[in-house]
Design a protein that fits this description.
24 helices
Length: about 525
């Protein structure tokens, strides 16, 4: 008997029950496959949930899994559901800019939230508003601690953008650049880098005086956190995700570059006694001064030991950081197979000899000149040889020792007026740095340090000025000969002479005179 005949024999009530059961069975696969995403994290960001199709959309980022926290009764939601997301987002973006101009920051935050809920995969929204919060809004605050709060808001905003766009390399790179550049290069960088490790928010006892776990869960320095984000960027790029930030060989250099910046920042921070990591410069100088004298000989001996331990710790940190930076730049990046921007995506290696060039050319069926051309181009574009040389110079124990002596000699001169010990350390430090400099003499008569490392030249000249002044202020005649006198002090190179004049002017600006 056919199904139709069976249905004809049923009563009206029975047929309704059958229809209801069949309808329910037909809805079951729809519910299983098409159930929408219905879970959000604490920031309102959708997480993997819902039916099979919703999970596929989330995994492949094919569409919005949720409209998040947009008010369901608002005009934004009404228009958004009718296909006017772009128009509404532009209107909201204009409103957000007006709110920024009027300094109505609380409303600005809510407006930005509506924009990203409407267009979570429009990366420019994340980039623009993240930098807007950190760079533009933060400058409207007078207190550096309040400015840092907005910097953190910008950072957290960018991080949320990477969660919504987990396969977009540009957003990961922008987040890394945010931590490296905004925290490490802003006018308030000394405070920001300190706050990054010891948060100043007294209203939040969970993070006050500690690292904020949302942006710095492991308590690292800002350049180390930037490197972590750059590594995520590289992983996406190397997995085949397309990016339009910059040439691939350039973007892949950033994790190693971050380690160089990290080493440089440790060196620039100088000596920091125990428990004073990245403390205010004035507080550190006061602590070091406290360790430099005492009426009780036994206490003075104990303080001197603590002072030496602080310098030894700094020297070790500097040398270790530069060694890691050198290894990363030369091994991790220098030996990486990079892809050129030509149609064939020619592979080349920066740290490679002639035999390897020949081998790599055969593997790709191209002329060795092609490999060598791309190699030469990107060694120049990334400043590869100079950065390699800088890391090699700074990672040498003799250079680390010289840095220590010159830094302590400067402190004794500037803050303790201890000219006798200052000139001893300055003279020894210049002797050490002279040994390093002479190792980089070139066949053409030039010197790699003096040509390529203006910061080292500046440090040498400033130390030579202090050495001369330490003798004169002790009412003694400076020595006729001193380290690097001919190579640096009496150099006729215009760049070195400019650095010398600039350094003399800086000394006069600080002390008001140059003793003759």
């Amino acid at each position: 008997m056919s199904p139709l005949a069976i249905l004809n024999q049923l009563t009206v009530t029975q047929r309704k029950i059958v229809y209801a059961v069949v309808g329910a069975l037909m809805l079951l696969p729809i519910l299983i496959l098409g159930s929408p995403a219905d879970k959000l994290d604490k920031d309102g960001t959708p997480i993997r949930s819902g039916g099979y199709l919703a999970q596929m959309r989330f995994d492949d980022e094919l569409g919005e899994a949720s409209l998040g926290n947009v008010d369901p009764t608002s005009s934004a939601m009404s228009f958004g559901l009718l296909g006017f997301r772009g128009i509404v987002a532009c209107m909201l973006w204009s409103d957000a800019d007006d709110l920024k101009q009027r300094k109505e920051f609380a409303q600005l935050e809510r407006k930005v939230e509506s924009i990203i809920e409407l267009q979570p995969h429009f990366r420019q929204v994340w980039e623009f508003q993240g930098w807007n919060l950190a760079f533009n809004v933060s400058t409207e605050c007078d207190d550096v601690r309040d400015r840092y709060k907005w910097v953190k808001k910008g950072a957290k905003f960018m991080m949320r953008g990477t969660e919504r766009n987990r396969r977009v390399p540009e957003l990961h790179w922008q987040t890394g650049y945010f931590f490296g550049h905004k925290i490490g290069s802003a006018d308030e960088k000394d405070a920001y880098r300190r706050f990054f490790i010891a948060d100043p928010d007294e209203n939040d006892p969970d993070i006050f005086g500690k690292n904020d776990p949302e942006i710095n869960p492991e308590g690292k320095g800002n350049y180390e956190v930037a490197r972590d984000w750059y590594l995520q960027t590289n992983a996406l790029v190397l997995s085949g995700r397309e990016q339009h930030q910059m040439d691939e060989p350039l973007i892949l250099a950033y994790p190693s570059s971050a380690l160089i910046e990290h080493a440089d920042s440790i060196q620039e921070d100088g000596v920091q006694p125990d428990g004073m990591q990245l403390a205010r410069h004035e507080d550190i100088l006061e602590a070091l001064a406290e360790l430099s004298y005492d009426d009780d000989p036994e206490k003075l001996k104990e303080k001197q030991a603590r002072l030496e331990a602080a310098y030894d710790a700094w020297k070790e940190r500097c040398q270790t950081a530069w060694e890691k930076a050198y290894d990363s730049w030369v091994t991790d990046y220098g030996r990486m197979r990079l892809r050129a921007t030509d149609l064939n995506r020619t592979k080349f290696i920066l740290e490679i000899d002639e035999d390897e060039v020949e081998h790599l050319a055969k593997l790709q069926d191209v002329q060795p000149e092609v490999i060598q051309g791309w190699r030469t181009r990107y060694r120049k574009t990334t400043n590869y040889p100079t950065r390699k040389q800088r890391c090699h110079i700074e990672s040498q124990p003799k250079m680390t020792e010289a840095r220590y002596k010159l830094a302590e000699g400067k402190r004794l001169f500037t803050h303790m007026s201890d000219f006798q010990n200052s000139r001893r350390l300055l003279l020894d430090g210049l002797k050490d740095i002279e040994e390093v400099v002479l190792e980089y003499n070139r066949a053409d008569g030039s010197n790699g340090v003096l040509v390529d490392e203006p910061d080292i030249v500046r440090n040498i000249i400033k130390s030579q000025i202090l050495l001369e002044q330490a003798y004169l202020l002790s009412h003694e005649k400076p020595p006729e000969e001193f380290p690097l006198k001919d190579l640096v002090w009496n150099s006729q190179d215009s760049i070195i002479q400019d650095i010398k004049l600039e350094s003399q002017q800086a000394y006069q600006a600080m002390f008001g005179y140059l003793t003759q």
